[in-house]
Amino acid sequence: MKQLEKHKTPLERIVAPLATQSNAHLVVPAILVVAYMARLAVSFGSYSGQGVSPMHGDFEAQRHWLELTQHLPMREWYFYDLQYWGLDYPPLTAFHSYALGKIGSLLNEDWFTLDTSRGIETYGVKLFMRHSVIASELLTYIPAVLLFSSLNKDTVLHRTVTTLTVLLQPAVLLIDHGHFQYNTVMLGLMTASLYFMMQGKVNLAAGAYVACLAFKQMGLYYAPVVFAYLLSVTYQQPHRFVLLGMTTVAAFALFFGPFLLVGGVSGLQQVIIRMFPFGRGLFEDKVANLWCAINVVYKLKAHIKGETLQRMSLLFTLLGVLPASIKVFLKPQPKVLLLATSSCAWAFFLFSFQVHEKSVLLPLLPTTLLLYSSHLYKSWIGYINIVAIFSLWPLLNKDGLGLQYAVLSLLWIWLCGFGQSTESMPIRAFHYATYLAMVACHALEPFFAVSHLPDLWTVANALVSFGAFAAFYLWTLYQLLLS
């Protein structure tokens, strides 16, 4: 009993009896069971666009891609009926959809018949789609996190607790297993790339990163730091540098080449156009980045041309990623790499073009992985994860996932001991002020609906979240300066 009492968090006390030398062989199976059960519990809730005709939502978009890749030749995948969830992710997502569609069609071909299956919401198709996300994680994200955890030479207890903290991260679970997407495939590939970089296996790192980018174009959030790191560790070794370049080109050719072969230049061009829809505008909905925050007081789209906004966004993003890229180039060390990747991804989220609220998962990945490298970062990492979950509230509320949002968030915060800050008094005051603002938004929203300001609480959420995200970005710059 005294041994258990010295552990600080409920999760540590729960895991401690398991994380011993005699029970070490049970750790990974236990992690897998807990991870699966948490995902399954979230998946029982509703999802994006459930019962909302005619377009439904992200669930239907993903299902539709499984459908169209089954019945159409590859050259038509990125051209088919673009008004109804046209395919707009890179080739690896298309191939992933094709593989899942093949498996699903073997179980029940009615789930994915071309056009006539649109909007299908039977129990069977929902069960299959939900488990397709879990299966995809079991093949990518979860193994990558377990692999990454092996870099940590701390106690079995610390590694196990940190791994569970990462795998039970509410923002990831609520988006992929609640709202419905396959973000963890991209995140898993990036985690694998980080692992290989830290192990000095640059060609595997490049291959994994290209796969990440070929699954979702948002993987570009990491590109400057990945490029700077790989360049730094190879540019003085010509043979290694050339081999890295050949590996990168070969990986891109593997994923994008088939569309050039079957559709020619126009076919490949269409893939790129669908991946980068600049015509959609600077941001969508009320996302917690700089442009949405400015737009509250100064309507950007009304006063500045779209092309000018794109250039401004590009300039701010380049300036935002520059410190991390320079630092990791000059000092390509594992601890610096994680901090730099986090800083770079936050800069993209805060300043780049066409940001979605779900994109917060990208900077959260390297940020949360920092838990493996230092206990000193825990207060800030917990803080920014809590704010990130809060920033997703408008989306999750629209999806009918309020119960999952509340239970999973509070349970994770309690288990991991993230409710309290161990920082200096000014930092603690800032953290608690943010928490107070979040609670106030939740408490007031049901009772103070303003008819002429229908987006009042969504905007309030975005502004509170933006303030926290901007502060965390500055914190990453400060830590890079110290490292």
Automatic annotation (TrEMBL):
Residue intervals passing through the bilayer: 241-265, 336-355, 376-396, 402-420, 456-478
Localisation: Endoplasmic reticulum membrane
Listed Pfam families: Alg6_Alg8
InterPro entries the UniProt entry points to: Glyco_trans_ALG6/ALG8
UniProt keyword Transferase present: yes
GO cellular component: endoplasmic reticulum membrane
Class of the enzyme per the UniProt entry, highest EC level: transferase
EC number(s) reported in the record: 2.4.1.-
Topology in the lipid bilayer: Multi-pass membrane protein
GO terms assigned for molecular function: dolichyl pyrophosphate Man9GlcNAc2 alpha-1,3-glucosyltransferase activity
Pathway(s) of this molecule: Protein modification; protein glycosylation
Keywords: Endoplasmic reticulum, Glycosyltransferase, Membrane, Transferase, Transmembrane, Transmembrane helix
Predominant subcellular localization, coarse grouping: endoplasmic reticulum
Family stated for the protein in its record: Belongs to the ALG6/ALG8 glucosyltransferase family.
Name of the featured protein: Alpha-1,3-glucosyltransferase
Annotated source species: Protomyces lactucae-debilis
